[in-house]
Amino acid sequence: MDSAVNNAKALIRVEGVTFSYGIDPVLVDVSFSIHEGDFLAILGPNGSGKTTLLKVILGLLKPAQGRVFLMGKSIDKFVDWQKIGYVPQKATHFDPLFPASAREAVAMALMSSAKFLHRMDKKEDALISHALELVGMADFAGRRIGELSGGQQQRVFIARAIVQQPRILFLDEPTTGVDAETQDYFYETLDGLNKNEGITIVQVTHDIGIVNKHIHQVACLNQRLVYHGSHEEFCRSDTLKNMLAGGHHLISHQH
Amino acid sequence: MAALLGYGFLQRALLAGLFIGLACAVLGVFLLLRKDAMIGHGLSHITFAGVALGLLLRTMPLAVALAFSVIAALGISKLKERAGLHGDTAIAILSSVGMALGIILASLSRNFNVALLNFLFGEILAIESLEVWLSIGLAALVLVLVIGHYHKFMFMTFDLESARVSGVRVRRLDALITVLTAVTIVMGMKVVGILLVSALVVIPAAAGLQVADSFKKAVLYSCLISTASVVGGLSLAFFLDLPASGTIVLFGFILFGLVSIFGKGRR
Q1: Which one of A83, A99, B206, B212 has the largest count of C-beta atoms within 10 Å of its C-beta?
Q2: Phi, psi of A27 (to 5 degrees)
Q3: Mean pLDDT of B19-26
Q4: Which chain A residue is nearest to residue B33, measuring alpha carbons?
Q5: CA-wise closest residue to A207 among A235, A184, A239, A175
Q6: Measured between beta carbons, which residues in chain A are less than 8 angstroms from residue B215?
């Protein structure tokens, strides 16, 4: 890692995190930092602890050992949740019969920090429209979320995650069940958020092929952190070869 | 309608019924989406023990029922969380325990059978002025609290984890929904009785959810159907000399049926 990156302010610091649901450890002594403006993919096979790590970083799970710092604050003292955007794993978090419109799905996140009895004003209304525009879903604002395609739903959830104009965006397997063409559009969207809005992006995926030209850094996880560094080095590294030898499929992402 | 409103007891029944119905309808949408449809049924059965105890001690049965309901509601959510029981298992256990306790308490004193029957089957036409004001006050409190936390409640119901990451105080608000439900169930009991109160929470909300393409509309339709059920049910009960509780619930069910049949194309 070059010194310029080292000197940049660490937005997220994970220090010696160990976690287990029962007897078997899911995460063992994981340490790394994520810096302002990064676009990082946390990679690893199924069951490697990726989602668990994400939940530990977000304070949804408490590690048995180790510490997590968000923006310099210990996670249990962190209060600036408006600065965090989160797109959870879709399959486990979404009732397709839920009656919310795309607009309402975004509004609920924006208004989650509102005062008691506060009614949505014009400024907030505009923020919601802007978020939907950024992900190309403005024309679908009034549609019930369950009626949208998988890719469209995922874009609405990104709009929901970015509507509070966060500094960091976390995504858990965001392209599951999304076709290749939509995936390309999806990554263009994320790239735009990263480059134009300066949002740091952390994405969890089991699909090595997802690692494409937009992603700068890779953290490879298999209970322990087996690799952390730039994407280019990762492509030349033994880690990738080992993962591929382990039967992992690689979908080429050439543009 | 004008003839109906000439009667003081009907005015009181209508007023209390409308407000309590609205509280049930609004809360119902959240409860159904949280897959908590049976909570009303469970709480009302536990409340039976509270009513029996109140009658036995000759204190305000409604107040004792309220205490039972709130404690039981918090108990159910603790059981779900701690004992790793499914929600419906926790409800089934506590509701039968409540019923068992109620039966024993009822047998200890033999002179309050009529009063107990009123609680079981509803006594909205016998509601007193003080109770009307109490009902309106509590229902208004429920409505204000739900509207005040509207987006947070919606977010929690839709996606609990994301709501937490967005900084919503999930635990605290979850307890608030639980307590509001407990209070609403006890008030609903006043309208249609212990045995039918679950219908006030479930039927209008279920009908609203059939046709709504947004959350706001689901809540709005649920309120409309609840209002129509109370007004229509009470009027029919009066003109046909039927029991008010059963008529309100059946009227609601007919509306639910109509919405299901004719509203399907809308979503």
Answers
A1: A99
A2: -125, 135
A3: 95
A4: A98
A5: A175
A6: 98-101, 104
Q: How many CB atoms lie within 10 A of CB A107?
A: 27
What interhelical angle do B87-108 and B61-82 show, nearest 10?
Answer: 150
Of B147, B151, B164, the CB nearest to A60: B164
Encoding tokens for residue A107? 């509004």
Pick the CATH number of A2-249 from 3.40.50.300, 3.40.47.10, 3.30.1360.110, 3.90.78.10: 3.40.50.300
Rounded Cα distance between A11 and A34, Å, is 6
The Cα–Cα gap between A210 and A208 comes to 5
Q: Which of A88, A94, A112 sits opposite B168 (nearest CB)?
A: A112
Q: What is the pLDDT of residue A244?
A: 63
- What is the token pair recorded at A228? 């952390």
How far is B254 from chain A, CA to nearest CA, in Å?
22
Helix (H, G, I), strand (E, B) or coil at A15: strand
- What are the Cα distances from residue A120, in Å, to A107, B8, B223, B238? 9, 41, 22, 43
Cβ atoms of residues B15 and B195 within 8 Å: no
**pLDDT tens digits for range B198-233:** 999 999 999 999 999 899 999 999 999 999 999 999
Q: Which of B 86-145 lie inside 8 A of A, CB atoms? A: 144
Size of interface A-B (CB pairs under 8 A): 94
Q: Tell me the C-alpha distance between B161 and A155, whole Å.
A: 18
**A100/B144 CB distance under 8 A:** no
Q: Contact B159/A101, CB-based, under 8 Å?
A: no
Give me the residue spans of the domains in chain A. Answer: 2-249
Mean pLDDT of B75-99: 83
Quote ipTM for the complex.
0.85
